[in-house]
């Protein structure tokens, strides 16, 4: 008796990156963020089916139980999870505050992005990277930050609306999550700022946002108490 599998449209690379701090990158890598992320990133597995995805996910610790700043990265085949590779892109950021959002929310985002329900609804394949990071704070000890990276910022509103609708249909109440849209090219005046400097500046202004280091999933060290959501403030973005 054959066992049916559910193939994904594309295969995805599952990787892990521990927190990179400014001191670590300066002392160990001569302030080269790209080199640091390349050497610290661990490729875990390729997943080509729904079954392989969940087999890999279930074999790993839950992201919310891992050290602060730990990041799992899922990137579509042929797509590099680097800010520089998304010149016209943006990210939809979903903060999952606590259970059941931290469980069901991830399931829904995987289905929407890797199962291509977003692509089917909007008529374009624009979601190429998913990042999951442990970001606990004083209010939400299990907060998980999910970033969906888009190759075209024009679709940000449609993608965030799709995810919000999925959450509402699953009866995940608004107090359990927050969704925002952040274009990578948000501040044109910062083009002359070096990547590491931009990372430090963004961390000071927007503690919850991912720093603008040039490679895959680099994170500055962020105080836990600074992770509180501030939806009324616009985020400054890397270039």
UniProtKB/TrEMBL annotation:
Region called Disordered, residue ranges: 178-239
Pfam families cross-referenced by the UniProt entry: IF4E
Keyword entries, A-Z: Initiation factor, Protein biosynthesis, RNA-binding
Single Gene Ontology MF annotation: RNA 7-methylguanosine cap binding
InterPro entries (alphabetical): TIF_eIF4e-like, TIF_eIF_4E
SUPFAM superfamilies in alphabetical order: eIF4e-like (SSF55418)
Record's compositionally biased regions (Basic and acidic residues): 186-207
Family: Belongs to the eukaryotic initiation factor 4E family.
Biased composition (Acidic residues): 218-239
This protein's GO CC annotations: eukaryotic translation initiation factor 4F complex
Protein name: Eukaryotic initiation factor 4E, putative
